[in-house]
Design brief:
By secondary structure, the chain is mainly α. The chain has one domain. It is built from eight helices and no strands. Helix 1 runs antiparallel to helix 8 (196-215), helix 3 (57-66) crosses helix 7 and helix 6 (144-162) packs antiparallel against helix 7 (167-190). 33% of the residues are buried.
């Protein structure tokens, strides 16, 4: 069902934006495969680990859990039920979320981009969720954690904007959501789970699919 608040022009803009972001993602993928980001990737990793205290190892490791498949799919299900029950829309285009797994797997198979060396890794928890082994190759582009988190954040920010809250409450909720998202991005690089280019690719991929989902709402 269409979102009457957007209108046909608004939906068209969203779909066009999604296509543009998709093209940017393809171009970025090419340059990543050509190793064009090596200097930026290494420098961002070294800089993040130099300026951030190791006391953040455990908190940032928990952010890895938040961006996992298990947690993000749970959040997606909650959003779907909320929209269905409260807004009375069948938000079927949320299923575009699952395209992330296909595109992520393709990138991690066909785009030559080795993972950060394990000597830099700072993940500090004694366990990994089962989903950590689903898409498990020697390459790292794009970041699935970031792609999924970006998709959800875009949707959540729209839902916050639609709420009948005071402006102050909307600013607080949006700021808190964005702050958690920002820490997730930083944690991916700081923990040496991904390179800067992987994170950038994840943001663009997640934004493209989320924008397309909103365009078809």
């Amino acid at each position: 069902m269409s979102n009457p608040a957007l209108g046909s022009r608004g939906r068209k803009i969203l779909v066009i934006s999604s296509v543009i972001l998709g093209i940017v993602y393809i171009i970025l993928s090419y340059f990543v495969g050509q190793d064009a980001f090596r200097g930026i990737d290494y420098q961002s990793l070294l800089t993040s680990q130099d300026i951030i205290s190791q006391q953040f190892d455990i908190p940032f490791s928990f952010l890895t859990i938040i961006g996992s498949t298990e947690i993000t799919v749970l959040i997606l299900g909650i959003i779907f039920l909320y929209v269905l029950i409260k807004i009375r829309h069948f938000f079927f285009s949320l299923s575009l979320f699952f395209l992330i797994f296909i595109i992520e797997l393709a990138g991690k198979i066909f785009i030559y981009h080795p993972l950060p060396p394990s000597v830099f890794n700072r993940y500090s928890l004694d366990f990994h969720l089962p989903s950590s082994f689903i898409v498990n190759t020697n390459f790292s582009f794009p970041s699935g954690h970031v792609s999924r988190s970006t998709f959800l954040v875009v949707i959540i920010l729209l839902l916050i904007a639609r709420k009948n809250w005071s402006r102050l409450n909307k600013i607080f909720a949006s700021s808190l959501t964005f702050l958690i998202f920002l820490f997730i991005l930083i944690s991916r690089i700081y923990l040496a789970e991904h390179w800067f280019s992987d994170v950038l690719g994840g943001v663009i991929l997640g934004s493209s699919l989320a924008t397309l989902a909103l365009g078809f709402w």
